[in-house]
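Q: What residues go here?
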């Protein structure tokens, strides 16, 4: 996958900032969690402490009543009542009838029997010792009502009019009698007219025998005083005291006494022991901490639940502000990083793009191209180096072009000279030859034999010179009179060459074989000459064996490689380059006739066709001449 430098830069910048932001956010979240934990834990501690004090206050009431019942004259009063009841014929019936009488009296009426009870010394004492004493002390009613029964459950003393006369039909009475004391849950006390708990305590004589029960209705206000006093942790802190089945005993805000909240979400999350959790109440997220009452000393408590709750928003407010701040700062940083990365990547990629474009332009051959990068950094240096390189390459190319031009010009001049010289030499030579031939004819028998020999040699020399000049002219003409390239069937070309070589082939008895040959773009006349020269040489430089010549063509990459193979005398590999130069021969005229121009002509023709020519050979092993032609050549003439 290709990713641009700019993208990489921007990506890494943003990634970096994101990482930092993530770490910051993570630490805030961890901070929030531990803050929540510490507030939760301290609230749980607070709740446990409040419950302990509530239970302690209940216990102190029990203890107070027990201490009170130790007073001798009170015990005696109860015992006296018991004795009086023992004297009755049927205690149960007596109590029953008195109770019926009591209950059937109108609510506000005080019968003489009631009045007697309410007014006795014991009742007075109870009012004094509890109701009045505490009201004076605290300014409100701590005890709503107190009354004492004898061991048969009949009232002996009472501070107000009780609902009925007999109490042994009540659970609290029996539990107090059996277990020593009894504490009720919060309930509406009809005779006291308040929400209260009732505390029952067993009365005993000095030897521990059961003599009766005292019951005190303790106002709930007294119990929750503790909870009320130490609640203001936060502005949104709410403290709730609940019965174990989820009815409200006390809330630090407006509430309905004994309202059942067990269906609320927070209550369902309360578990056995102490703990804290987050829940929603009245549409607000809150941190709840709760504890269960476990009692105090011998009092085992009523498993009340104390719940302290704080609005999460307030408790974790500073953490939320910090979180918001970090998010804002992160966004800001990301924006800055993005801008910086864009700026940086522009600063880096712009000169690189300019450099790339420059390099591409120069690659296409536009040597005038220069790059304009003003940066003073490494890229600036690179650009300067690049420009220098382009300048040098331009100079070198110019010099090369000049040299080439020069070379072409001097070559052309040389060829022109060779052509003109050989052309101009032909005429005087022909003249010399015809005069010498005349001389020979006329004075053949009038001169001595030496003179005849000289004349013959002169004719020979001139003839040979004519051959040389003709060959030279042929060489010079290559290209000069060249025809435009055309689609040329090499088999037709080969056919022509073989026709031209007919005599030599027949005389030598040579076997010429060839494989299918392609059609190429070429000057057919010149191609005939190439084949003719090569096949002619193959026959001419034969060994003692019958000459066998094999012609074939093979396609390699984008060109055709032709080969002319013989079984002749072969060539020393060290000399295989030289034979392509003009007038270069490896043999004397006597051994093998020739001028040393044939291969030079082939090479020149190949040059014109954009091909190559070379030989692979070894003495005595035959030779293979190769030449190439482009597969599909354009008409370049
Ligand atoms: P010429 O044939 O007139 O001598 P060429 O230019 O055709 O001139 O050849 C140059 C020299 O290369 C030849 O004199 C010969 O020595 C050598 N040569 C060319 N073709 C062959 C061949 N097929 N086998 C051996 N030698 C060869």
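A:
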């Amino acid at each position: 996958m290709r990713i641009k430098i700019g993208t990489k830069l921007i990506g890494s910048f943003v990634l970096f900032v994101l990482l930092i932001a993530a770490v910051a956010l993570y630490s805030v979240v961890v901070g929030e969690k531990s803050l929540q934990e510490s507030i939760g834990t301290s609230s749980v501690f607070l709740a446990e402490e409040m419950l302990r004090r509530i239970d302690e206050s209940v216990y102190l009431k029990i203890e107070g009543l027990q201490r009170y019942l130790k007073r001798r004259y009170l015990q005696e009063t109860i015992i006296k009542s018991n004795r009086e009841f023992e004297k009755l014929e049927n205690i149960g019936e007596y109590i029953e009838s008195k109770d019926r009488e009591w209950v059937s009296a109108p609510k506000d009426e005080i019968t003489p029997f009631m009045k007697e009870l309410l007014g006795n010394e014991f009742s007075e004492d109870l009012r004094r010792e509890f109701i009045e004493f505490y009201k004076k002390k605290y300014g409100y009613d701590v005890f709503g009502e107190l009354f004492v029964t004898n061991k048969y459950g009949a009232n002996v003393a009472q501070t107000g009019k009780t609902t009925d006369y007999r109490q042994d039909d009540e659970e609290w009475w029996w539990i107090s009698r059996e277990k020593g004391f009894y504490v009720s849950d919060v309930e509406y006390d009809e005779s006291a007219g308040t929400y209260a708990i009732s505390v029952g305590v067993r009365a005993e004589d000095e030897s521990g025998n059961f003599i009766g029960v005292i019951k005190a209705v303790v106002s709930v206000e007294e119990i929750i005083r503790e909870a009320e006093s130490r609640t203001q942790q936060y502005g949104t802190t709410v403290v709730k005291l609940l019965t174990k089945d989820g009815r409200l005993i006390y809330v630090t805000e407006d509430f309905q006494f004994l309202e059942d909240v067990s269906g609320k979400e927070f209550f369902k999350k309360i578990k056995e022991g102490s703990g804290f959790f987050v829940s929603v109440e009245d549409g607000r997220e809150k941190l709840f901490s709760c504890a269960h009452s476990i009692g105090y000393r011998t009092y085992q408590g009523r498993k009340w639940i104390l719940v302290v709750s704080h609005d999460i928003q307030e408790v974790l407010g500073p953490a939320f502000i910090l979180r918001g701040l970090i998010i804002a700062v992160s966004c800001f940083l990301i924006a800055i990083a993005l801008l910086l990365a864009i700026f940086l990547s522009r600063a880096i990629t712009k000169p690189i793009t300019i450099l790339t474009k420059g390099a591409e332009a120069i690659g296409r051959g536009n040597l005038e191209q220069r790059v304009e990068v003003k940066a003073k950094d490494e890229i600036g240096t690179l650009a300067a180096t690049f420009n220098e390189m382009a300048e040098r390459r331009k100079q070198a190319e110019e010099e090369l072009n000049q040299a080439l031009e020069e070379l072409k010009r001097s070559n052309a001049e040389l060829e022109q000279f060779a052509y003109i010289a050989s052309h101009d030499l032909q005429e005087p030579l022909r003249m010399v030859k015809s005069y010498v031939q005349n001389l020979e004819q006329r004075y053949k028998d009038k001169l001595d034999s030496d003179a005849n020999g000289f004349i013959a040699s002169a004719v020979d020399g001139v003839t040979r010179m004519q051959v040389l000049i003709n060959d030279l002219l042929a060489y010079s003409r290559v290209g000069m009179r060249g025809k435009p390239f055309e689609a040329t069937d090499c088999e037709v070309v080969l056919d022509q060459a073989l026709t031209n070589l007919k005599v030599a082939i027949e005389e030598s008895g040579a076997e010429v074989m060839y494989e299918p040959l392609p059609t190429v773009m070429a000057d057919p006349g010149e191609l005939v000459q190439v084949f003719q020269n090569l096949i002619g040489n193959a026959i001419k430089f034969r060994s003692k064996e019958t000459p066998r010549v094999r012609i074939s063509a093979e396609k390699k990459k984008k060109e055709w490689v032709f080969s002319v193979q013989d079984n002749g005398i072969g060539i020393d590999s060290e000399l295989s380059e030289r034979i392509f130069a003009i007038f270069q021969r490896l043999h004397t005229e006597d051994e093998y006739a020739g001028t040393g121009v044939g291969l030079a002509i082939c090479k020149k023709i190949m040059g014109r066709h954009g091909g190559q020519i070379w030989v692979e050979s070894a003495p005595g092993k035959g030779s293979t001449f190769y030449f190439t032609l482009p597969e599909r050549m354009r008409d370049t003439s």
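A: Context that may help when evaluating the design: Residues 533, 537-538, 541, 566, 568-571, 579, 585-587, 594-600, 623 surround adenosine-5'-diphosphate (CB under 6 Å). The first strand starts at residue 143 and ends at 150.
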